[in-house]
Amino acid sequence: MPTTIRFHASPTSPSNSPTLSKGSSSRWSPMTTLEGIVFPLVADDESLALLDGLEQLGRRLDGARVASTAEVARRADIEYDGGTDTLSERMGCTGKLDLIMSVTHVSVREVKRRISLGALTSVRSEVGQLRPAVFPAVSAALAAGEIGVDSAEIIVKGLQEVIRQADPSDLHLAERVLVANATGALNDDTAGLPGAGIALPADRMRVLVHEWQARLDPDGIAPQEEAREAKSSISFGSFERGLYRIFGGVTPDLRGEFETYFASRLSARATVKFLPTAGPAELAGADGSDVVPDTELAGSDGADVVPDAEVVDIDRRPAGEKRADILRDMVREAARDPKAGVMGGSAPTVTVHVNAVDLNAGRGVGWIDGVEAPVSLTTVDQALCSGGFIPILFGPNNEVLRVGDKRRAFSPAMTKAIMSRDGGCIIPGCDIPAYWTELHHVKSYAQGGKTEVANGVCLCYRHHHAIDTSGWQIRMTNGRPEVLGPAWIDPSQTWRPAQNHRANRAVN
C-alpha cells in the first residue's frame, strides 16, 4: 500500500536561498506531497526548487534530532527511584550510546557527533532551571533550520577552542557574524563585510572560523603550534580493497610545504602535438591538420622513424593519484641520499620475496618485508627489472644452502650512463627527472635481454607500472631508445625518438 509523505513547515522563517529564476513561479512548498514524484522527470527549475525545499526541511529535522539526542543522553545516566536505576538500565542498555543507537539505529560516530553538538547548542536544565545554550545564536539558527549541522559544528567547535582566552563579548560577536555568514543574513554585525548577505557553504565557514580564532586569541597561535607539532603523526590503517589507508595530521606549515611542492609538480602538462617534419608546403596543407599522415611519414610497414615529430602523453590521472606518486618519488629520493639512515648496513631498500617456482610459472604473489599484504607478480617483475635480485637456495628444512650474487641489476655506472642519455622518463610529455625514475629492461630478462646500457631506459613509476597495458612500445636502435605511442595518441603509428637529455638535444 503506497504511503503519502506530507511535510509541514513552520511559517516563521523565510528562506535565504536565492530565487531560482526571475519571475519563476516554480517554488516548492514543504506541504507538497512527494508521492508519485519521479525525480528524473521533473523540470530543471522545479528540480532545484524541490532540492531547496527538502534541504530546508532537512535542516529543521537535523536541528531537532541534535536537540533530542542531547536530551536523551542527559537523561540516560540520571538515577531514578532512589538511585537504583538509570534510564539506560531500565531500557536494558549499557549506557547512553547503547540506548540512543538502539532507538535510532545510527552509528556510534553519529551519536557522538549529535551529543557533542547538542551539548553546546541545546538549552540546558540545571537544578530544575533552564539555562541558555553555550552558543545561543547557533542554537537558534539550528532550531529554525537556517543553518545546517555541518556549519553549526564547524562554528561551535572552532569557537570552543578559544572560549577560555577570548573576551565574552568578542566571542558572542564572532558567533553572530559567523551565523550570519552561514545563513546569508544582513544585520548590523555584517554590514560592510565582504560577501555579506550571501549564505556560505560549510567548507568556506571553516576558513572564516580560523580567521576568527586568530583574532580572538592572537597570542595562542604559537603555543598551539608547539602542541600540534607534538601531535603531528602519520600512520597506516588496515589493508582494504587493495590499498592501505593513511591516517594522521600535520601542522599548517608542513601542509603548506606539501601543497607548494605538489603544486609545482602538478602544474599544467603540455598538450598533444603532432609536429611533422614536412616542408613549408606540406605544413600549409589545405585541411590545416597537424597530424602526421601515415602515407607521408611512415613506411608501409610502419617501421620508419620520424626524427622530429613529437607525440605527448597527457597525464589524465586525478590529482590525488598524482600526489601519491609524487610522495613515492620524494621517499625514494630521500632513501638515495647518502645522509639517509642505514638498515642492515645499507641504504633503505624495499625487499620483495618471491618463490622462484612461482616466478618462473608466472603465478603466485610476492611479499614485502614489514607489510602483511601480498603484491602481484607484475609488481615483483617491475621490482626485479629496476632493482635486480639475489637468488637464495633453501633446503628441505628451510635452511639457507647458498646465497648467489646480485643479478639483473644495472650497476651504478650503467645507471649514470642511462640517466645521462635519457635525462628522465623517455615517454614524450612526461616531466619526471632521471633521479626519480626506474630503469627498465627494453628486452625483458626472461626473454634473454641483457642488463646493459643498450637495453635499459628510464621510466617513471607510472609509465613503468603500465608499460604492458598502456599501449606504449619501446625499442633500441643504435643504442638509443625509440617509442611508439598507442593508436589513440598517435594515429599514424610511427616510431619516434624517445625523449632524451636536453644536453644531447643541444648537441644534435
Count of helical segments? 18
Query: Which strand-content bin applies to the residues?
Result: 5-15%
Termini separation? 81 Å
Task: Catalogue the unreliable spans.
Answer: 1-26, 268-309
Q: What is the approximate shape?
A: elongated
Sheet/helix structural class? alpha+beta
- The Rg value, from CA coordinates, equals 33 Å
Query: What is the strand arrangement across the widest sheet?
Result: 7-8-9
The beta-strand count equals 16
Mean pLDDT: 75
Please describe the biggest sheet, giving its number of strands, its sense, and whether it closes into a barrel. 3 strands, antiparallel
Helix percentage range: 25-40%
Question: What would you note in describing this structure?
Answer:
This is HNH endonuclease. InterPro entries: DUF222, HNH_nuc. The chain is α+β, with helices and mostly antiparallel strands. Among the domains are: 1-16 and 24-133, no CATH class; 147-222, no CATH class; 232-265. Helix content is 40%, strand content 12%. The protein is built from 18 helices and 16 strands. The chain has helices at residues 44-76, 87-90, 96-104, 108-121, 136-143, 149-160, 168-183, 202-216, 221-231, 252-265, 280-283, 294-297, 319-336, 356-361, 377-387, 412-422, 461-465, 502-507; strands at 79-80, 85-86, 124-126, 129-131, 233-240, 243-249, 352-353, 365-368, 375-376, 392-394, 400-403, 438-441, 456-459, 473-477, 480-484, 496-497. It has a 3-stranded antiparallel β-sheet with strand order 7-8-9, covered by helices on one side. A hairpin with a 5-residue loop joins β10 and β11. α1 (44-76) packs across α4 (108-121) and α7 (168-183) runs antiparallel to α8 (202-216). The chain is elongated. Mean pLDDT is 75; it is low at 1-26 and 268-309.
